[in-house]
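Help!! Second protein's tokens look totally different from the first
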Amino acid sequence: MSKFRYSIILVIASVYFQPINLVAQNIQNTIDSIQVEIEKIRGAKFKHSVKVAHQSLEDFGKYLDKMLDKQFSENMDKNYGKVVRKLGLYRGPEIKDFKSLAKTVMQSQAAAYYDSASNTFYVVMQDLPKSTLGSIYAHELYHGFQDQYHNLDEYLLSPGQGRLNDDEVLARQAVVEGEATYLMMLWTLKTQFGSIPAPGMLDMAIKMQAELDVKTMLQMLKSSVVPLAQSGNMEKAIKAMDDIPPFMIETMVGTYLKGMGFVFEIQKQGWQKVSELYKNPPVSSEQILHPEKWLTNEFPFKFEWPSFAQKLFSDWKLLESNTVGEIQWRIIFSEHGMSEDGLTAAEGWNGDSFAVFEHKKNSELLLLICSSWDTEKEAKEFKAAYEKLLIVKYPEGNETIKIQSNANDVLIIEGGNKNNIAMLLEFMQQAKKTKSNSP
């Protein structure tokens, strides 16, 4: 459930990058100067200049309306809240209007965004310290570089003509935002100190940031450790985060910070290896969390459900069928107060598929999950951890639940009629399980 993106989360720059001297009479002159520095760091030139412009919140809202209408169907908008609650990504009040929530999130958190159609990046939040603006400019300029070489619209907004699952899309988002965030860090460090530290010195800092959770980030932002966060638009953005469902923030921040950690590991083999990420994209968030799995071409299993057009589901309407993925399994456990359990339980992930149904008469929800794990031991560990989670998820204990492990696979049923459990398990066991060698 990670189908939307924007180009920079304001708080990232305010947390990680300290003040630098950025003085310019003309914003385009500043951009051109930063572009030259990026070319030196990247060892490649922009094919052409990237334009920059300021944009009002009102015009940004109009842009978001068009983008959200393009990316989300009316059916998806209507069912999003039900699906994320049933999956366990979110335990708060049901999200009734996802597009409106997504728009609110972006308008409160996005400092700038790159628009490939006009080869321009727009600065939305203008009441920001010059130090922060410099990092934002570098980040968005680099999106222009990526677009010129790799066509971001094709890579992100319409990949595979809709054949990619959400976890695959999330992995691609992590490549794009992670690389831009990494380049932003390198540019900022070079601007501040005159040179880029050796990879060994960067390693610890980047790994620490990649593992940072939203709760810790918010504590840092609200503390005196980050004085920049107490001014202007930053203060508003931080306050707004209290009203955003945690799973949305965790997912979005993960694309920047976990994505940066992934790109950093790949870039140890050179920038040409980073460029390969666009020709041979990672196929799961598992590969983002464990870069060696991309480097060794270790792919997860994919599940293909049998047809739902059968008597067993005649009283049910399919709301969504997709993939959870390792990152969002972590978030599900975290949402239920089991963050540490989630890190261990999700680590052996090797593919999954879920389907959420709504009963046509009483609106009851049914969740089916087929999952695969690296070893039989890890499958049992996940099953044990998830059984603990279900006690928190359904405290009244009145939900129909069935978890069945079979070697490396774990099948999960939540909801529905107890009398249909055997038939549902038989149906799930017919799911086609394949491991592809390409995305």
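Here's the second one for comparison:
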Amino acid sequence: MGERLNVTFLVDEDTCFGCGACIALCPKNALSLSNRLAVVQQDECTHCEYCIPSCPVFALSIEGD
């Protein structure tokens, strides 16, 4: 994993309920909560994927190359 080009971190806003489990695992503090949804700062995210398995409703993913 790690920093990759041409990828985007996605949060499914229809599924995320803002539990915050992903936020605690982000080593770059690229995730936060806003209006009870996880929000990613794309410029801070290194696409390490540590947060993805922490989501109990599978609302996190990475799209791209």
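Reply: Different proteins will give different token patterns, so don't panic. The first helix runs from residue 21 to 25.
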